[in-house]
Amino acid sequence: MDDEAKYVPPCRAALSAKVTCDACQKMLTLHSLRYRHRCTPMVDRVRRLTQEAQFAVQQRAEATLEAERASKYAHLINF
Ligand SMILES: [Zn+2]
């Protein structure tokens, strides 16, 4: 009786199986992969990561520049 209540049709059981998306290595159910998953193409992901890296480098450069400016002014003030 309990078994009957827990019975899941094979087609639905398959959809709730956990799978890993080949493209983005994300773990999700087969249902999500087939109907809901919006996979970011590898090219886009690489491009976005590159942009993020460039942005981070740029920010670090600006931070360094700010620090240099600040130390320059500090030097002027001290002097
Ligand atoms: Zn994916």
How would you characterize this protein structure?
A hairpin with a 6-residue loop joins strand 1 and strand 2 (27-29). The chain has helices spanning 2-6, 10-15, 30-36, 42-78, and strands at residues 18-20, 27-29. It has 79 residues and is mainly alpha-helical. It has a two-stranded antiparallel ribbon with strand order 1-2. It has four helices and two strands; from the N terminus they run ααββαα. The chain is 70% helix and 8% strand. The longest helix has 37 residues, at 42-78. The chain starts with a helix and ends with a helix. The chain has two domains: 1-39, no CATH class; 41-79. It binds zinc ion. The site of zinc ion has 6 residues, from loops.
Please outline what is shown here:
The protein is mainly alpha-helical. Helix content is about 70%, strand content about 10%. The protein folds into two domains: about 1-40, no CATH class; about 40-79.
Helix-strand pattern, N to C? HHEEHH
Major sheet characteristics: 2 strands, antiparallel
Shape: rod-shaped
Question: For the largest beta sheet, what order do the strands appear in spatially?
Answer: 1-2
Radius of gyration: 26 Å
> Which cofactors or ions or other ligands sit in this model?
zinc ion
Q: How many helices in DSSP terms?
A: 4
Through-space gap between termini: 89 Å
- Label the structural class: mainly alpha
The proportion of residues in beta strands is: 5-15%
The number of domains is: 2
The helical percent reads 55-70%
β-strand number: 2
Topology, element by element:
Elements: H1 2-6, H2 10-15, E1 18-20, E2 27-29, H3 30-36, H4 42-78
Antiparallel strand pairs: 1-2
